[in-house]
Amino acid sequence: MKYDNSVRIAAVGDLLFTTAYRAGSAPRGMEALTPEIHKVFSGCDLALANLESTLPAQEHISTEPRVFGTPRQFESLRQAHINLVSLANNHTFDALESGFKQTRDTLDKLQINSFGAGTNLEEAQKCASINIKGVRIAFIGAVAPSTGMKSFADNITLGVARLETDAICANIRHLKKNHDHVILSPHWGEERFRFPSPEQIEQGRAFIDAGATAVLGHHPHVMQGMETYHGGIIAYSLGNFLSNPVYWENGDTLTWDRFERSSQIIILELDKQGILHVEQIPTFDNRISIGVDHTGGTGKYLKRADKFIRDGITASKYNREAFRVRKILPFKAQLRWNKLKRIRPGHFKKALKLLLQKD
Fold first, then answer.
1. Region label for 158, one of left (φ > 0), alpha (ψ between -120 and 50) or beta (otherwise)
2. pLDDT by residue (tens digit) across 65-76?
3. Where does the pLDDT of residue 339 fall: very low under 50, low under 70, confident under 90, or very high at 90 and above?
4. How many CB atoms within 10 Å of residue 149?
5. For residue 332, what pLDDT is reported?
6. Cβ(297)–Cβ(262) under 8 Å?
7. Most exposed: 55, 136, 242, 320, by fewest CB within 10 Å?
8. According to the model, what pLDDT value does residue 1 have?
9. Quick one: the chain helix, strand, coil %, rounded to 5?
10. Which 8-state DSSP code applies to residue 31?
11. How confident is the model at residue 331, as a pLDDT?
């Protein structure tokens, strides 16, 4: 549905631009999009994504995984009509200051706006202010400490903006004085959890009450539910949009299952007064191309995710989900066929230890 003189925004989740440490094939970028997805993005005034990658440099953080992309992958953003990215995530500083500056310089040359990170706190908290058809929109990003991020900006130190409820709400109220809309892109939550915590739901609703039009989250690498609240929308996690494997120096590789490669495009239609229409387009990354999922599989995941939110998230339900992700999933991973065919008695012990160990 299109409205006259409205602003049409497409938002997607994580773009995992990665390269193997011992590269054997060309790294995959946004050339993987099908013509149908290209048409969706090109039909919007703005296309937003979480850029969960950085350009490499000689120095980098000591912990793994480190998510490094290539200049060609970054150039593919422009070809795909992505013109705004959040740098508020826990991999923006994997190559420290040099990698961050290369990344931001590359985005500037490509005329792709970014937000959520900077060389000091003022830059990290600064919004991307965009005026489209007379509608002024401020985009801000922030990262929760629980994501494992260590590089938080302060007055003299580069980093990402920290996700602190009171500070974000104050910034939203300030930006609303000269913007029609404020859209927050938080990096928060727990990886692979199918729904947010009760505390996140409280946070998300506080941001809407402070004046945000939309909260578009990421970090869990899977889709979580979306809800409407007091005239705004909260999408707790958009999921992986581009699901490249993630590599370790020792040759280990993290790959993504069917659920983790299922994602969505959220389309927002806005005018100066508010949201006119919201649409969720189910997508799927088959490891070669990314297209609209017409099989119904991703749609089923979306409905289930929204139902979790409608039914309510209690502390006990969240604790059961934590057990599933932290105990059951690792246990099942040890029993996959590619490991079973090389099984030794010690593998059973390892799987059992994962299941029984205390957090």
1. beta
2. 999 999 999 999
3. low
4. 21
5. 79
6. yes
7. 320
8. 58
9. 30, 25, 40
10. G
11. 81
Question: What's the one-letter identity of residue 11?
Answer: A
User: Which residue in this structure is represented by tokens 């947010």?
Assistant: 196
DSSP secondary structure letters along 212-237: -SEEE-BSSSSB--EEEETTEEEES-
As a whole number of angstroms, the distance between CA 102 and CA 272 comes to: 36
Segment 107-140, tens digit of pLDDT: 999 999 999 999 999 999 999 999 999 999 999 9
Residue with tokens 């995710």: 305
pTM for this entry: 0.92
Class of domain 7-311: alpha beta
Tokens of residue 135, six digits: 């509608």
Helix (H) or strand (E) holding 267: strand 262-270
Element (H, E) at 9: strand 7-16
Mapping DSSP onto H, E and C, the string for 166-208 reads: HHHHHHHHHHCCCCCEEEEEEECCCCCCCCCCHHHHHHHHHHH
Higher pLDDT, residue 353 or 251: 251
Domain ranges of the chain: 7-311, 314-359
CB distance 235 to 195 below 8 Å: no
Q: What is the pLDDT of residue 333?
A: 76
Tokens of 6: 């409205």
CA pseudo-torsion sign 331, 261, 95, 142: negative
In 287-343, which residue ranges form alpha helices assigned H by DSSP?
Answer: 297-311, 315-323, 329-334, 337-340
